[in-house]
Design a protein that fits this description.
The protein has a six-stranded antiparallel sheet, covered by helices on one side. A two-stranded antiparallel sheet has the order 3-4. It is globular and about 60 Å long. It has four helices and eight strands, in the order αααββββαββββ. With about 220 residues, the protein is an alpha+beta fold. It has a single domain, classed as Hotdog Thioesterase (Thiol Ester Dehydrase, Chain A), CATH 3.10.129.10. It binds tetradecanoyl-COA (MYA). Tetradecanoyl-COA (MYA) binds next to helix 1, helix 4, strand 5 and strand 8.
Length: about 220
Amino acid sequence: MTAERAEASVAKVLSDTGERPWRSSDLHGGDEYSATYEDLTHALGDFLDRLAEARPDTELIESMTESLAGWARELGPLAVRERDRVFGRRTDLASRGQTMSPTIELAEISDDSASGTVYFGSYFLGGNGAVHGGAIPLMFDEILGRLANASGRPPQRTAYLHTDYRSITPVGRTLGVRAWLCSEDGRKRILRATIHDGETLCAEAEGLFVALKPGQP
Ligand SMILES: CCCCCCCCCCCCCC(=O)SCCNC(=O)CCNC(=O)[C@H](O)C(C)(C)COP(=O)(O)OP(=O)(O)OC[C@H]1O[C@@H](n2cnc3c(N)ncnc32)[C@H](O)[C@@H]1OP(=O)(O)O
């Protein structure tokens, strides 16, 4: 899907849910700003992975705490309404401009399917090299939600998301991810997705997405 199409479908999501449609012109600084924000989210994700892996000494912990508190103080007065924010609203970027779920790099996307790769860094570790069991449905909701809301479909919300954990999902490896639309019935759409480590099926999910009625939040 092109960036223009993704943006058009997101604009529809927001206009139908009562928010002013999001436009790329909401982002200040054009292309230069676009690249900079993507770099910021990558740097933040990298920081979280390194933090999760490290055993810092007290001096470094104190110094990091001070730096982070300084950034929070600087950002505090810059808070804007949800519709004017950048974080998580950059559907033109693989990361969507957020770090809550890992970045999904899509190699193929059509109206009813998407496939690509996902990499869970150390930040998403549950234990013994396996991704946390809550991070996996988070990633599934991300890819299924994006697919459900793509291609000019009406805005939808997840009604249920069922995940089966078939084998551990390893941290620190590039994994295959696939999502596809299974059925449509009125306002209801069922979508499925899988994560593979090579030939091994790690996890699979089924989600029901329900198209929102006008004015529904
Ligand atoms: C700018 C950037 C924006 C980014 C956006 C894009 C990227 C996003 C990426 C991230 C994306 C993240 C996305 C997210 O995470 S969305 C956040 C998580 N989801 C929610 O918060 C949803 C909360 N629930 C609701 O709002 C309502 O319950 C909904 C809207 C879902 C339905 O309530 P509504 O009052 O409207 O409809 P209805 O109750 O008459 O139901 C309608 C039909 O559906 C059937 N049904 C309903 N529930 C279930 C169920 N659990 N199992 C089986 N069936 C169920 C029901 O039987 C009926 O069927 P039928 O009798 O007609 O046959």
